[in-house]
């Protein structure tokens, strides 16, 4: 496997990175208050810093690319309570298309909805609320709020696929569901029904014993069961499954890393889970035939 080093020139810790839809560019978020956009060259082509985006007044926790259907759009969230929507214009110049500055505390996680839902961004905030911002036809934004989603603070957010379980994408039925995690050690599933966001399920709270650092719903369609991964400060990654809507979610500890787990991320096909734990421990996991999960790759720092 070829490895490649990309120089980012951040002045402080990097908290998150995201590759765009085409795999051509990398965005990074740092405690130095900036977001950087870098080209990912081929095996022989050098990577190049394309832009340094300044506008936050605190550590930047997360970055997320929107679907290219909506143009080159990037979102970032920060300890400063701001969420910034960045848009690339002509000549590779980035500008702040919109700034959400009315959050009262740290915005810890952001996630763009599946493109079928529209240009729609969910945010998990330390004030305990989840905010869902949707662009209007006139270019303005509407905000829906899930009040006290996690009363002591929401830390993580992820969208379900836009197609209902077992249905083909051509069915036309668009699903709006979110999974969230919080400082309360709880994972919750939310669904947009009858014009508002409502609690679908609070998953069994005895699986995690500390802050839920990340949640991830695989972006795959037509699976036989719904699946969610959650990562916790307590060192455990839990895989949650539900065969059909209305059933109870079942949780299984995939692995106890004995050190805080920061990120979980699914492959596009939903069968490989990437886990970032501890100082620089990145591993890939796959479900075996017996339902247990096996480590298939360890990424050396």
UniProtKB/TrEMBL annotation:
Ranges for the WD repeats: 53-87
Keyword Protein transport: yes
Pfam families associated with the record: WD40
One GO MF term attached to the UniProt entry: structural molecule activity
UniProt keywords, alphabetically: Protein transport, Repeat, Transport, WD repeat
Superkingdom: Eukaryota
GO BP annotations, alphabetical order: COPII-coated vesicle budding; protein import into nucleus
A GO CC term assigned to this protein in UniProt: nuclear pore outer ring
Role description: Required for protein transport from the endoplasmic reticulum to the Golgi apparatus.
Protein name: Uncharacterized protein
Organism: Brachypodium distachyon (Purple false brome)
UniProt lineage: Eukaryota, Viridiplantae, Streptophyta, Embryophyta, Tracheophyta
Encoding gene (name): LOC100842784
């Amino acid at each position: 496997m070829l490895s490649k080093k990309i120089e980012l020139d951040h002045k402080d810790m990097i908290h998150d990175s995201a590759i765009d839809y085409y795999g051509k560019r990398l965005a990074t978020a740092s405690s130095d208050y900036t977001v950087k956009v870098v080209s990912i060259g081929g095996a022989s082509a050098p990577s190049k810093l394309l832009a340094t985006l300044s506008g936050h007044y605190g550590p930047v926790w997360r970055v997320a690319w929107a679907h290219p259907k909506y143009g080159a759009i990037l979102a970032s969230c920060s300890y400063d309570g701001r969420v910034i929507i960045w848009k690339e214009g002509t000549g590779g110049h980035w500008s702040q298309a919109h700034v959400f500055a009315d959050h009262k505390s740290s915005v810890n996680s952001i996630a763009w909805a599946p493109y079928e839902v529209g240009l729609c961004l969910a945010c998990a905030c330390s004030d305990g609320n989840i905010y869902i911002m949707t662009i209007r036809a006139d270019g303005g934004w509407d905000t829906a709020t899930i009040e006290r989603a996690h009363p002591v603070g929401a830390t993580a957010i992820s969208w379900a696929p836009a197609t209902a379980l077992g249905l083909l994408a051509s069915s036309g039925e668009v699903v709006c569901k979110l999974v969230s995690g919080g400082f309360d050690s709880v994972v919750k599933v939310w669904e947009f029904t009858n014009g508002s966001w409502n609690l679908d399920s609070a998953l069994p709270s005895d699986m995690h014993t500390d802050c839920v650092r990340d949640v991830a719903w695989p972006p795959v369609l037509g699976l036989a069961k719904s699946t969610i991964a959650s990562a916790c400060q307590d060192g455990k990654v839990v895989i949650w499954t539900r065969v059909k809507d209305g059933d109870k979610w079942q949780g299984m500890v995939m692995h106890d890393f004995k050190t805080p787990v920061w990120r979980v991320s699914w492959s596009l096909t939903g069968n490989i889970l990437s886990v970032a734990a501890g100082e620089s421990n990145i591993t890939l996991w796959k479900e075996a035939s017996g339902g247990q999960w096996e480590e298939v790759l360890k990424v050396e720092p």
